[in-house]
Design a protein that fits this description.
five-stranded mixed sheet, 43% helix, alpha/beta, Nucleotidyltransferase, domain 5, single chain, 2 domains, 338 residues
Length: 338
Amino acid sequence: MKSGEPIYILGIESSCDETSASVCKDGKILSNIIATQEIHTQYGGVVPELASRAHMQHIVPVVQQAIDKAGIQLPMLSAIAFTQSPGLIGALLVGTGFAKSLALSLNIPLIGVHHMQAHVLSNLIEQPTQEFPFLCLTVSGGHTQIVLCKSPTDMEILGETLDDAAGEAFDKTAKLLGLPYPGGPLIDEYAQLGDGKRFAFAEPKIEQLNFSFSGVKTSILYFLQKELKKDPDFIQHHINDICASVQHCIVNILLQKLKKASLETGIKSICLAGGVSANKGLRKGLKEMATTYGWNIHMPSLEYCTDNAAMIAITGYYKHLAGIENDLSVTASARASW
């Protein structure tokens, strides 16, 4: 690529049940196409084998749509970024294999991306002038972390869950309440109509900046079992208050740890990331805390909270600028450290 020419990055995301492709030009997103796999709803969770098959069906048309919407041709690409880890290994292999084949055919670099780092950098999509360093509360179905982001290519995990993730706590609670998968967003909807202080649940006291949500889930389970013995229709009669109280408990745990991280580091530039960052209660709570403690906050638009390729493309762009690339020996990994 000649000096002064625009940098076009194709991003590919296939870590779970979303097949997504995105094109960015010099750090600006031109397209972000997502194919959602509806088949998992009937099973109450993601079925890995079905996810892999769906990725194979979707990846070619999704990438083509992303290229077309961006208004470019494949030979104009500077590099291809793809989710290398973590995720469902079968799903990751589909995206990895496609990215490697396309990069080889175009003779352009490959850039492997860590899925959770990409979630953090999703904050740069709409706010490229984001101040560094910043703290990012990254919350999803599989991860809950507080990340210190020193630059687009230098991050450090300050705290993480010791067992279950916040998103998993929401989804497992939804299952206990008889709500369909994915249940987390439904809890959020019911919570808007309820009293968050109606019922109380255990909040584990975990040292440092780590989290634990297994005890929260157990507390909710025992509470429901006790109340259902007294009133078999308890959930139906109190669904709004139950959801609001569960949300209040989980959000409070997240925000108290984030406050602790800010006080310990002295950093007041705060961001959210991950699927659970779309939660209305969490977003409202963060705004209130920002007012109280003078934080400068940023929360991605909803389309960039859940799994998407725009965050992969933007991460690939910054890694490309830093000269961080991979050769064709790169492989997918279900679990990988930062």
